[in-house]
Amino acid sequence: MLEKLLSFSRHHKMALLMLMDALLLPLALWSAVVLRLGGVWDPKLDPYLWIFIVPPLWVLPIFIHLGLYRAVLKYVDDKIVATVFWGVTLAVLVLTAVIVLARVTPFPRSSVIIFWVFAMAYIGGSRFVLRGLIRRIDAVDAPREPVLIYGAGRAGIQLMLALQAGREYRPMAFVDDNPDLWRRTFRGLAVHPPRELPALLAETGARAILLAIPSASLSRQRQILESLESLRVPIKRLPGMADLVSGEVRVEELKPVSIEDLLGRDPVPPRPELLSANLAGKSVLVTGAGGSIGSELCRQIVRQQPVRLVLYELSEYALYAVEQELRALAPGLEIVPLLGSVTDGARLCSVMQAFAVETVYHAAAYKHVPMVEHNPVAGIVNNAFGTDVCAAAAETCGVATFVLISTDKAVRPTNVMGATKRLAELALQARHAEGSRTRFVMVRFGNVLGSSGSVVPLFQRQIAAGGPVTLTHPDITRYFMTIPEAAQLVIQAGAMGQGGDVFVLDMGEPVRILDLARRMIHLSGLEVKDDSHPHGDIEIRCTGLRPGEKLYEELLIGDDAVPTDHPRILRAQEYHLSAQLLTAHMAVLREACDRLDAAAAFACLQQVVHEFCAAEVTADWVAGATGVH
C-alpha cells in the first residue's frame, strides 16, 4: 500500500499529508483531554464537541505557510522539528484564544499544554516514521553497495548522512586515525582504528573505501592511500574542501582516487608578485595554447588580469576548445584565438605587432619521443627552428619577456626530441649573449600528470580494458608533477630571470614506473597477475625501451644549481655556444632540413648539441621507405 502511495504525484502526496494531519490534530486534542480527566469523560463537554473538529481549520494554514508540506519525506532531517514546534505553538495559542472567546468553561485549561505535547509527537513523529518506511522500501528495491568511510570528522558524517538518504551506497562503519573517536558511534555506525580495516572488510562485506578527509594535506592523503593499497579494494574520495565550500560539488559526489592523489605533494603557496609581474595589465601570447601545458598556462594567466590574451595554435580543434573554456572562465577578458605555425616568422611578427604583445610563453613543441625519433626533420624544424623563429619575431617586435617551456629530456639527450629542445635553449642563450633587449628565460621540468602522451592516462585505459598494462622496462623511472603546479612555477620562474637563465623546477622524488602501474591497479581494487598471483586480474608486461628512451631522466647537465628565492625553483649553471658558432651550425642544419636530408640533419644535430648520445635504432621512416640512408 505504501509503495502505491509513493507513486502518487507531488500534489496528491501533499493532500494525503494534510488529510493525515487533519485526523491527527483532533486525536491529539482528544488524547490530551482524556488524559487530563483521568480517562473519565466529562458530560459537560458534550455541547463543545465541535472544538475537537476545528483545530485543522487554522493549524493546516499555519503549517502550509511554514512550508511543512514542501519537505520531501525521504530527506527530512532534524530541522523539521523546529517547523512543527512553531506550527504547534501557534496552534495552541489560537486554541487558547478560541476557548476563552467561546467561553468553553468546562474545558480543562491544562489540557491545552498536554495537547501541545501530543501534537508535537503525532505530527513530528509521523514524519520520521514515514521517512524510515520510505528509506526501507528504497533499500529493498535498490540493493546498495556496502562501503566503509575513512574519516569520522564533519565531512565523514555529512557523507554518511548523504549516503543513507541515497540509493547507491550503504555505509557500514567509520575508520579514523584519531584514537579519541574510536568506539564512538554516529547514527549507529561505529568508529574503528585503521588496523582493523582487513577484519572490517571481511565482516561487513564492504566493496569500497570512501575517503572523507578533504582538509588533510596531500602528503597525509598520500600516506593513507599507500597504507590502503594492500587491501585491494576500490577507493573513492570526496572532492576537495575548496570545491565543497564553493558549492561546485556536493558531499555525496564521490570520485575515484586519481594517481595525482598518490603522487601529488603539498603545494608551496605562490608568490603573488611573481605571478603577476609579466601578466597583470599586459598583452600576453601563448604558443601551443591548446596543448596540455599551454592550456593550463592560459588558465593561470587569465586569473592575473592581463589586458589581452592571444592564443596561437596550429590545431584548429585544440584552439576552439581552449578558447571556449577561457571565455567561460574570464568573460570580460579580450581573448584572441589565432591559427598559425611557430615556423611562420612573418605571421608571428604580424600577430605580435597587431596586438602589442609584451610577454610570450612558448609551449608549442612536438614532444612524443618515439614519434619525433622517426620524424627527425619535422622535430628539428618545429622544436628548434620554431623556437628560434619565434624568438626572432619577439626581438623584432620589442617583446619584453620570452619564456621557453623546456624539458628534462634536454639534459644529456638520447633522443631527437630532447636534442631539439636543448638546441632551442642554446638558440635563446646565444640571442641573450648578443645583447638582446628581449629577456629570454628557459624553464626545464619533467613529466606532467595527465598530459597528452603521459603514461597515466594510458595505464588508466589499459586497466579499464582489462589489461595488460604495458611499460617499456621494469627499472624505468620518471619525475612527475601536476599540470597546475608546473604552469604556476613556470610563470613565477619567468618573472625571476635576468636573461639567458635556465631554471629547473624541483620535481620531487623520481617514481619507478613499475611501482606506479602496480599502485594504479591496486587502487582500482584489482590484483596484479604475476608468478606470485597467477589468478590475478591485470598483467604488467614489459615491451622493451622505445627508440631514444632513457631509463633515468635528469634535470641538470652540470652538477651545480643555484637556489633562488623560491624553494622549488633552481637556476642551472650550464654552458652555451657563441652566437657565431651556433649560427654556422644552424645554417648547415637548416640546409639539411630544407633538403629533407634526415641523415645529414641528424649528424649536424649531434655536432651542435655536444652531449647528444643518439640511440642506435633512430631512423627516419620516410628515408627508410625510399631507401635513403
From TrEMBL:
InterPro entries, per the entry? NAD(P)-bd_dom_sf, Polysac_CapD-like, Polysaccharide_Synthase-Rel, SAM-dependent_MTases_sf
Name listed for the protein in its UniProt record: NDP-sugar epimerase, includes UDP-GlcNAc-inverting 4,6-dehydratase FlaA1 and capsular polysaccharide biosynthesis protein EpsC
Name the UniProt key words of this record, in alphabetical order: Membrane, Transmembrane, Transmembrane helix
Provide an example Pfam family for this protein.
Polysacc_synt_2
UniProt xrefs under SUPFAM superfamilies = NAD(P)-binding Rossmann-fold domains, S-adenosyl-L-methionine-dependent methyltransferases
Does the keyword section mention Transmembrane? yes
Q: What range does the record give for the signal peptide?
A: none
